[in-house]
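[SOLVED] Need 3D model of a two-part complex

Original post:
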Amino acid sequence: MAEQRVDEKTGTRTVGHEWDGIEELDTPMPRWWLYTFYATIIFALGYVVAYPAWPLVHDATRGVLGWSSRGEYAREVAAEGVRRSAVREELARIPIERLPENSKLFEAAVAGGASAFKVHCVQCHGSGAAGSKGYPNLNDDDWLWGGDLKMLVATITNGIRQPGNDATHVSMMPAFGRDQLLKSDEIEDVASYVRIVSGQEKPSASAQRGAALFATNCAVCHGANAKGSRELGAPNLTDKIWLYGGDRESLVQTITNSRGGVMPAWGTRLDPVTIKMLAAYVHSLGGGEAIVPQPSPSPTEAAPAPSANGKP
Amino acid sequence: MASPEDLIAPKPPQLFEARRKIFPKAVRGSYRNLKWAIMAVTLAIYYITPWLRWDRGPYAPDQAVLVDIANRRFFMFAIEIWPHEFYYVAGLLIMAAIGLFLVTSSVGRAWCGYACPQTVWTDLFLHVERLIDGDRNAQIRLQKAPLGPSKIAKRVTKHAIWLAIALLTGGAWVFYFADAPTLARYIVIGQGPTVAYATIALLTATTYVLGGLMREQFCIYACPWPRIQGAMLDEKSLLVTYKYWRGEPRTHGLKRAAPAARQPETDKGAAPMPGVPSLVALAANPELAPKIGDCIDCNACVAVCPTGIDIREGAQIGCITCGLCIDACDEVMDRLDRPRRLIGYSTIADEQAAGEGRAPEHPMKRLFRPRAIAYFLIWASIGLAMLFALGTRSRLDLSVSQNRNPVYVRLSDGSIRNTFTLKVRNMQSRPREVEVSIEGLPGGALWSEGGAREGAANSLRLSVPADKVTKLRLFVAAPSDGPPRSDLTFRVRALDAEGGEDTHQIHFERPETGR
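Solution:
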């Protein structure tokens, strides 16, 4: 044990250690410092009594103030709900076609739609809405059923090929091979023709045969020029976007067995405001289309309907 | 010093030490005057600055110095700092640190003694205390006096004035963060923001506690600067120094004899003193003269010290080098007809030289030593670099980020679209028309969110509001045949008379297969 002694000059005890002839004085702390230390101890005791502090086997002490982090969270969520209610009410009131006029509300709707999308839509369409094979990319400018705000709301609300929903999008492409409407070499010919109209192949004898087959079997839905039909959800076969692939093998697959994607009717699960926000978000991704003004039925609404995008 | 009893039977170790209350005596002199001047200047700067006006036009506040936290702007006369330009503030902090090194290595702890807010306000509070309670002796008497009406009245008055000063101090601070006249009105009619009242309350409390109650305790126990500054001093730094070689041994009672002993022929009538050789003997043999120090142990230097230290014990953490002990000692030396500056600003090296009879170094040589020059050069080059950056900075700024989810989108005509988020900063206090264009992407066209591809062109115009960042989503489409990654330059150009532009280079991404 180190030898403790009293320093002659100061009259203070040393702590008893010595390094290279240097000794440390055991100088007392100032009184207020010590009292502050005691105060922190008292504060800690009070804190333990007032707040949850002591872990037990299945629970923890509750604290006399009844505070809990879960309660705090619930309060904050409720407060946030109140804070958002004004915007939601405004969104509920405004018809979807008038939404782009109010850029601030549109921005709020896009932000709300982005988070709703992350919860309900990313499972199929991907976190960036880029889709994948069979699940449409919502960023591009190709729409099977239409890409204006009104149609987006309708599509999200009623879904695609949802049984029991009268307003859902329905169309059915025949399974030409499976149902033996076309023979397999005929299917090859149709595929050749489709690859020509989409600019992927050069004309051939097979394609010429395919053109005739297309006119009798496919043009009824996809149109004589193969540009598709939105009323029927029939894709435009002349563009460069293929939901199920535009290579020969995929085309043969499609013609043989048919295709028909489904989407839930979100109107039964989400409130109309959330659906409006989702439509605004999808519309904002870059492929949103302007609402084509319909001839107005009443003379009071004769003024031209505003463009959905606000800008030319 | 320890008493003999202490050494024989030491007291048990104490857990705490009671505060030794200090009653600094008033003093007159050159350093006291310097302190007055610095106190007046620093307090004036502190209280007046928020009220200075600076016309910035209708789009920006016209307060000369304003920390606008809500809008994230810092205004200082003609200079406006944006959050992304925070490096100017960092630069100022670095300059302050190096400036502290420079000042400390050259003239010692001048910051502690003269400019530190703790010093300035403590000094102010001490003057108030003297005004109410009287000088040192009166204060000590009052402290010992029993609590009576007069003592209570004095104590209440003193603390009331202290609190009033503290309130003004805390009150002045909030005006740096909002338009001062408006805020002052709201605070007075009780409708100021809660944070203003909270800040005033907090700063009032800290000023009162630190300046009025804690005083030197803060310097000695809580403040890190004395420790840092102490480490920055060397043997050539100016310190308040007791000239040991001149003052020792201290001579109680011999003060009158001292001049006589050195000039025996002029004062033959002086009576011999015990222990001192007679003047006749001294005249015959000056070697017999005992060494008589100039210090008469009158404790004037200790009595005036605001941190209650004895400078004659040498350099120590409690010494803030305020120079008041110099003034006090000079006064005594004048009365004794001895040369001034028995205590004075000096360096350890000079004092060693003087003790050994050598000449001290020339002050200029001490000031312009390599260490100080090096500090000064670093300090000045940072300052010049900042001035240069400030003078050449553009008031229009562009930043671009690429949206990467998805990286690219194939459009129905086969072309490829990328999406970018542009931020255009207009740092002028008026709205500006700018043109955003793309370069280096053959066949590329851009359109903004809300626009349509049909209207896409090589450039687009937009109006950027005054003092605002405009966030803009841009779509850029280009033919799909091209390398997977090509360079793309965004350029923003102001269309008004001042001009100015900024560019940002980024990549345009395509699928690997081209097609």
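Edit: Chain B has 19 helices and 15 strands.
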